[in-house]
Design a protein that fits this description.
- The complex is a heterodimer of chains A (397) and B (297).
- Helices cover 39% and strands 20% of the residues of chain A.
- In chain A, the strands form four sheets. In chain A, strands 3-2-4-5-7-6-15 form a seven-stranded mixed β-sheet, with helices on both faces. A six-stranded mixed β-sheet of chain A has the order 12-14-13-16-17-18, sandwiched between helices. A two-stranded antiparallel ribbon of chain A has the order 1-8.
- In chain A, strand 6, helix 7 and strand 7 form a beta-alpha-beta unit.
- In chain A, 53% of the residues are buried.
- The mean pLDDT of chain A is 97.
- An eight-stranded mixed β-sheet of chain B has the order 2-1-3-4-6-5-7-8, sandwiched between helices.
- In chain B, helix 7 links the parallel strand 5 and strand 6.
- In chain B, helix 1 runs parallel beside helix 7.
- The longest helix of chain B has 22 residues.
- The chains are: A alpha/beta (397), B alpha/beta (297).
- At the A-B interface, strand 3, helix 3, helix 5, strand 9 and strand 10 of A face strand 1, strand 2, helix 3 and helix 5 of B.
């Protein structure tokens, strides 16, 4: 069924189709319309779920942690400072291996206060052990929410579905709402292996020593570091699992095929621009213009940011002359976070493309088409002495 | 009513756990589980209970337990309850069990919200009047004048937060106070709490020999002193009405109560109290009981 709705409503419909059993959320702009829609669906009995109106984001994720541990499929959503306020719980949910899904409606973080978009909120949580997926449009929002539950439950790792505040959350676009019955067969009922159960009592997330210890039967059980290593290794396995899930989704609904990253005019391109979220769509126009002028440049839109798809990144970029990373977040005092990751991935390659970095659109600073065109063109025509620093585009206007 | 004869012999915590010798919490947990039974799920933030329940991969408890972050106990318990409701397993009891720091300080926000929402679980706060698990730092419920490791020279300057009264002001289904020195009273109050729908809160004065500076063998004795001198009162609050219960109810009939000096002298944490400060504490107790006699006797 086709609908014209906001990105937030697309997310809410994805949650509904995923038959989520527990929703907990605290209002924050620009996430609010998503959770308002969910409360409407639940109060109107269109979605049979418990909606817990918590007093903070820290508690929102706590409710989801409790609910998932007791065997229910759970969802929350937040933005910016809300995500940072729940940061302790973000790490906890990954360590506890709970298959939660959270939408992060990307917004810049204070201080000073901003309600407008950038990616600093979710990027700052990249090391928490969650899977992070950045989507580009409304169709991807609804599809990815559904796929995210299946992925989270397949690998017992929580998933953040990140989409741009306002650019996607508040704009209205047409998208297809998947058929409920087909979603039901794509995403079976939630079964968690370590559910709190009086018939089979377990003491979950307890204090774990630095070293391996024997259990009461004398069998050696892992220490903290081993458990954390498992998380790291199994995050890596999420890449092929996500590809399989996406293939199954494509078979069921006819959409998908590029879950890790999608490319535009990258075939035979000498230069490749890398970006995440709706920004990658914006860049397509600049790339078209440059191709018209004879500059062979394409855009790679990275969807899966964590686990970082190093192998796929190398394959996509190693034969280019240059890589231009344009991003809406950075590691303060260093450089763009994605830029650093991509440089590190390309380091072992024999033919190292140059890698340039542009920081753009922080706190909703307008991104003009000329900003993108000029930056990409400057990099594509750069001399070898192009200084290896992050360039901030659009300052002081 | 429960008595030592009809109290179930079934144990839900294994001996040889990591509780300190003379631990008030250890008594409460053992007796509390006898009242709650197996069909329970615990939600536990960082506290001595975390350690007592066992370090991975050994568990001293036979009850399923979810360890959660410090501030999130009541919210996580809400999530467990919501999941059980969604899964049609509402017969299982959800019990949040936290210390005084985890309840009166870092956890009060999520607890307050859970009561306001009218959640359906039992929240138990064992109050040993400081952050004992991290090495005896002052908490919101540490009494005035008590030595702790971060009030090392002057003792705590401020009065303690009256947590059960704060909780009762939220009008939950049931509020009760207990003492680890009267475990059967605790047992009975749990039975009452779990028979009721909605949010239930039990606050327990819990002697801690290592944190309070007293001999292990005196835990129960000192706990009883606090109740019998009228310092810590056992009561229930239902429908906004506060009623003294158990040993505290009996005190109403007495003209005078034993002085508090003996309780304070039994613990080295109060060694810095001056005579004036002791007199001040006594005067507060006397005034409180004078009011009780007028209102309740």
């Amino acid at each position: 069924m086709k609908k014209i709705e906001s990105g937030n409503v697309a997310a809410a419909l994805g949650v509904k189709l995923s038959r989520v059993q527990v929703v907990a959320a605290y209002p924050i702009t620009p996430q609010t319309p998503l959770t308002e829609k969910l409360s409407e669906l639940i109060e109107g009995d269109e979605l049979k779920a418990e909606y817990i109106t918590v007093e903070s984001e820290h508690s929102a994720l706590a409710v989801c942690i409790g609910a998932a541990s007791a065997g229910a499929r759970a969802f929350t959503a937040t933005s910016a400072n809300g995500l940072l306020y729940m940061s302790e719980q973000v790490h906890w949910a990954a360590g506890a291996r709970l298959p939660l899904v959270m939408c992060v409606v990307n917004r810049g973080v204070g201080a000073p206060w901003t309600v407008w978009n950038d990616h600093q909120d979710s990027i700052s949580q990249r090391d928490a052990g969650w899977i992070q997926i950045y989507v580009n449009d409304h169709q991807e929002i609804i599809d990815t929410v559904i796929k995210a539950f299946r992925l989270a439950e397949a690998v017992s790792i929580p998933v953040m579905v990140c989409y741009d505040g306002y650019y996607l959350s508040h704009t209205y676009m047409p998208f297809d709402v998947p058929d409920e019955q087909i979603v039901d067969s794509f995403l079976p009922e939630y079964q968690y292996k370590h559910t709190l159960d009086p018939q089979n009592p377990e003491n979950l997330n307890t204090v774990t020593m630095p070293f391996a210890r024997p259990d009461r039967d004398g069998v050696t059980q892992p220490g903290y570091m081993d458990i954390r290593h498992n998380l790291h290794v199994e995050l890596g396995t999420a890449i092929p699992v996500f590809e399989q899930i996406d293939a199954a989704y494509k078979e069921a609904f006819g959409r998908g095929g590029k879950p890790i990253m999608s490319d535009y005019r990258c075939e035979g391109a000498e230069y490749i621009v890398v970006a995440m979220g709706s920004l990658a769509n914006r860049i397509k126009d600049a790339v078209d213009e440059l191709n018209d002028e004879g500059v062979k440049v394409g855009v790679l839109s990275l969807h899966l940011y964590r686990p970082f798809p190093r192998v796929q990144i190398i394959a996509a970029l190693e034969n280019a002359k240059g890589v231009i990373v344009i991003e809406k977040a950075l590691s303060y005092g260093n450089e763009g976070a994605l830029f650093g990751d991509i440089k590190a991935a390309l380091y072992p390659c024999e033919k190292k493309p140059f890698v340039h970095n542009y920081i753009i659109g922080l706190g909703g600073r307008e991104i003009k088409q000329a900003d993108l065109y000029d930056s990409i063109k400057a990099s594509c025509t750069a001399s070898e002495n192009f200084e290896d620093v992050s360039r901030w585009i659009g300052l002081n206007r | 009513m429960t008595n030592p004869v009809n109290l179930t012999a079934e144990e839900f915590i294994y001996p040889g756990n990591r509780a300190c010798s003379g631990c008030g919490l250890s008594t409460l947990y053992r007796i509390g589980l006898k009242a709650l039974g197996r069909d329970s799920i615990f939600v536990v933030p960082p506290s001595c209970l975390t350690v007592m329940q066992g370090l991975y991969p050994i568990a001293a408890t036979q009850i399923p337990s979810l360890n959660v972050t410090f501030a999130s106990t009541a919210a996580a318990a809400t999530g467990v309850r919501a999941a059980l409701k969604a899964r049609g397993k509402e017969n299982i009891k959800v019990v949040a069990w936290a210390g005084d720091g985890g309840t009166s300080d870092i956890g009060i926000q999520s607890l307050s919200a859970a009561i306001e929402r009218g959640e359906d679980f039992l929240y138990i706060c064992y109050d040993n009047e400081a952050y004992m698990n991290t090495g005896v730092q002052r908490s919101g419920t540490t009494p005035k004048g008590a030595y702790t490791t971060n009030t090392p020279i002057k003792g705590k300057i401020q009065k303690n937060k009256d947590l059960p009264t704060i909780i009762a002001a939220h009008n939950p289904t049931y509020v009760a106070t207990c003492s680890a020195a009267y475990p059967l009273d605790f047992h009975n109050k749990i039975l009452k709490a779990i028979s009721l729908k909605g949010m239930k809160y039990i606050h327990i004065h819990t002697p801690c020999p290592s944190g309070w500076g007293m001999e292990e063998r005196l835990s129960i004795t000192v706990g009883k002193m606090a109740v019998n001198a009228g310092l810590f009162d056992l009561y229930e609050v239902e429908n906004g009405k506060k009623t003294l219960s158990g040993p505290s109810a009996k005190l109403l009939k007495r003209e005078t109560l034993p002085r508090i000096d003996e309780y304070l002298k039994a613990q080295s944490r109060f060694r810095m109290l001056s005579e004036e400060q002791v007199a001040e504490i006594q005067a507060e107790i006397d005034a409180k009981w004078e009011k009780y006699r007028q209102e309740m006797a």
